Amino acid sequence: MYILINYLNMKKLLSSIFVVVLFSAFTFGSNPLPADNSFWSKVFSRLSEYQLTGQSKQLPLPYAYKDLEPTIDAKTMEIHYSKHHATYTKNMNDATANTDNSAKPLFQLFTEIENSPALVKNNAGGFYNHLLFWTILAPESGQAPKGELLRAINESFGSMDKLKEAFSNAAKKQFGSGWAWLTVDEKGKLVVSSTPNQDNPLMSTSEVRGIPILTLDVWEHAYYLNYQNRRADYVDAFWKIVNWKEVGRRYEEALVAILY
Ligand code: MN3
User: Fold this and answer.
1) What distance in angstroms lies between residue 219's CA and the mean position of ligand 1's atoms?
2) How far apart are CA 155 and CA 118, in angstroms?
3) How far is the CA of 222 from the centre of ligand 1 (A)?
4) Which of 7, 104, 179, 254 is 20 to 30 A distant from 215 in Cα terms?
5) Rounded mean pLDDT, 197-207
6) CB of 235 closer than 8 Å to CB of 219
7) Residue 140 CA to ligand 1 centre (angstroms)
């Protein structure tokens, strides 16, 4: 038992030291890599979330359709996951079947997305954005950001409330359909942005590029049954069901991928 406790403590200590070293490396500017396509290709290849463009699969939801109520109702979740996301997935696989992209890592496709037709871009984005979105949601539990993620939020935005304000504004002001993002940029800093349609920060065409760790779908199909035209209410309620543990995991993974 003592050995186990010591082992766990040692693991925790080592991971803390590791993150502090990473953090220091960013703070003192020892990472002057240019953020071009080859940089992002290398960074993305280190991320654990791996899918092949033409053979992508939806992952099972980590909760039941009804588990996000009352913030997101069961019917919306069911239609969103089993119809909308399923359609993006099928359309992307169909559009890239028998092309050079059929066995290309999805993140690689995103770094050169300007070479793809709109059909591929829209459906590949639709596939990935939802894949990420499902993982950063969780049944309401009063979770909050902790540890390195919380420190990074405070450093980049000043406070958790300021992050919420910036992100919520991006979500509310995105004209028409699109997404709001919290992204780790090439320097390891957190930035907020929004994109139209199914674009995302992984795409070479995106104004703000990086590794997204938190996102919100502001297409009407994501909220209309319950909120109708009240997008702002949906955005404000969203904070109750953020899976901060997963966002924190993604933040630390992104930092490691960018530095090494
Ligand atoms: Mn959607």
Assistant:
1) 6
2) 37
3) 5
4) 104
5) 97
6) no
7) 20
pLDDT digits (tens, 9 = 90+) for 157-179: 999 999 999 999 999 999 999 99
Distance 16 CA to ligand 1 centre (A): 36
**Helical segments of the chain, H only:** 2-27, 37-45, 74-79, 86-96, 106-111, 118-135, 147-157, 160-173, 224-227, 231-238, 244-259
Q: How far is the centre of ligand 1, averaged over its atoms, from the C-alpha of 109 (Å)?
A: 21
Superfamily the domain 37-135 falls into: Fe,Mn superoxide dismutase (SOD) domain (1.10.287.990)
Q: Could you say which architecture CATH assigns to the domain 147-259?
A: 3-Layer(bab) Sandwich (3.55)
| Ligand 1 centroid distance, CA of 151 (Å) | 30
Give the distance (Å) from ligand 1 centre to CA of residue 104: 24
Ligand 1 geometric centre to CA of 3 (Å): 47
2-35 tens-digit pLDDT? 444 455 555 555 555 555 555 555 544 444 445 6
Segment 78-91 mean pLDDT? 98
Q: 100: CA distance to ligand 1 center in Å?
A: 27
Where in the chain are the domains?
1-30, 37-135, 147-259
Model confidence, pTM: 0.87
